[in-house]
Design a protein that fits this description.
Strand order of the largest sheet: 5-4-3-2-1-8
Order of helices and strands: HHEEEEHEEEEEEEE
Shape: elongated
Helix content: 25-40%
Largest sheet: 6 strands, antiparallel
Number of helices: 3
Strand content: 25-35%
Distance between the termini: 155 Å
Length: about 300
Amino acid sequence: MIYCEARSGQFVTDMESTHNKTRSYKRAFTLVEMLAALTVGTMVLLAVLALYNRGQSGSAAVINKLESNRLPREVFQRIAEDLDRVAGGGQGTQIDILNKLQDGLSAAKLEIFRPVNDAKDQQQTLEKIVWQSSTDPESGLLTLYRSHSGITMEDALLDNQKEPWQRELFVPICSGITFFKIEVLKGETSLDRWTEGIPPAVRITMSFAQPYKTVSGTFDVPEEEKIVRTIAVDRTRRPTFTIPSLDANQADANGASDANKPADTNQPADINQPANTNQPTNTNQPANTNQPANTNTPAGTQRPNRIRQQR
């Protein structure tokens, strides 16, 4: 009996464990549900990644646009500082400008030379600054270089540690330029070459846009992609102003006279001209006190009476 009861108890225990396992199996996901969940999750993840990539590309485009405008402004400002410091230092300053085509791209060179005479009355180079663009053989685009040499040191701490031949090295400023041009403005004309001292003003054009090939075989960029700045070099020049002469007797094309011409007060008035009846009366004119009072006062009005009191 005891053995049978133990066996029967064990059988009941096995039945309960099997029932519990069956119930735990019913609570799990099926293979189809897991595949559907994975598919939906993958689609949501791909959508999120697509939005993130679009946001990244948009922000990168904005940053590139800002950077493309910031770098040329910094270059223009540095060139303007060199022109202002060297060209405005005194007489004898020479500025040479040369434009050319290098591998189909527009390149330019700006050389600022300021001499000085030593104790033996021999000319020495006080300061010389060269801005020059050259083609990079790896990228095929232009790289802008700057060189500073002469007696005047740009950085005394660093220039003292350099050899004389090291001070004339060209330092790269920026790369990836597709258009670089320096023009001299003289009146209404622009010159691509200048070797006549200090020019009145220079116009610098730079671009980093994608170039296109023209009919002549050279490369150019769209006009809206070019960044232009005009720098006044000779600020002590006297500007000339021209005022066009205007004939006072010449009437307007419509027959009207000049509105700025003062009227002739000595001209007599036209007695045949009718009077203007629409002119308002002058309300500030004092009333006539000699006119007799109106005794025909209408009825219904109260007139003040003086009552004499009699005792």
